[in-house]
Specification:
alpha/beta; Rossmann fold; 7-stranded mixed sheet
């Protein structure tokens, strides 16, 4: 897959540790936008990255990147997650990364989980997928979408973007409760985050994901707080503080 095709060229590098430090660790942001919104780009995390760097008591020991992926209706599932995996792989290769953690907002949270539990049948190159998953230590899922059945039950009008991203979501979207047994052993840190101020997604999605993890007896941490409206969360200082205290690499 070429650089332009997967939008790897739109990757943002917000922070790199000093060469003398261990630069093999990276926190990678994945934006949302309901699979369709061209206004949502990797740059939405610029302010959050600045907050992380400035509020840290010492130099961050990991890099901060933000990646892109192609959008619907020009492409449909599984291209979004294929692009995420491809661009994470290219980051690993270009920067010799040994450890990854993902921060996904909205549909970015959906894609972060789908990367962690990837259905191998969707990927033409298992070598690239395995390279990414073998380095994946944590996922931070922020105001995400985890069940399309429940989403459309609560917000029927959201079919306007679901129908653009999936030819048939009942066939093509795997509800997250069906994929917990595929979590890689390297994934030690799962964080479920939601803003009480989110006007686009109620607590129903995050409560569903919490119940999925509990039912599967998977260890996770949760942080529910008022971090502003849906599109304000990726810039919120409370989220930056949570990440500072909870991004831990082995």
């Amino acid at each position: 897959m070429g650089t332009d095709e997967s939008r790897y060229g739109r990757t943002e590098t917000f922070y790199r540790p000093q060469p003398s430090s261990d630069a093999g660790k990276a926190l990678v942001f994945i934006h949302g936008g309901a699979w369709i919104d061209e206004a949502c780009t990797p740059t939405v995390f610029k302010q959050l990255s600045a907050l992380l760097a400035h509020r840290s008591e010492q130099e961050l020991a990991y890099s901060l990147f933000s990646i892109d992926y192609r959008l619907s209706p020009n492409v449909r599932h599984p291209v979004h997650v294929q692009d995420v995996v491809e661009n994470l792989y290219r980051l690993v290769e270009d920067h010799r990364l040994t450890s990854l953690q993902l921060v996904g907002h909205s549909v970015g949270a959906t894609l972060a989980w789908q990367t962690a539990v990837a259905d191998e049948s969707l990927f033409p190159s298992l070598d690239r997928l395995n390279t990414v998953r073998s380095r994946l230590q944590g996922v931070f899922m922020v105001d995400g979408i985890y069940s399309l059945a429940q989403l459309l039950d609560e917000y029927p009008n959201y079919d306007y973007f679901v129908s653009q991203a999936f030819a048939d979501y009942t066939r093509d979207f795997e509800e997250f409760e069906q994929s917990t047994d595929r979590l890689p052993e390297t994934l030690r840190h799962i964080h479920l985050i939601h803003s009480y101020g989110d006007e686009l997604l109620s607590l129903r999605q995050s409560n569903y994901m919490s119940s999925v993890l509990q039912k599967a007896r998977i260890s996770f941490s949760s942080y529910f707080d008022d971090m502003g409206l849906h599109d304000e969360v990726p810039r919120n200082a409370k989220l930056a503080n949570y990440l500072l205290h909870n991004v831990k690499f082995a």
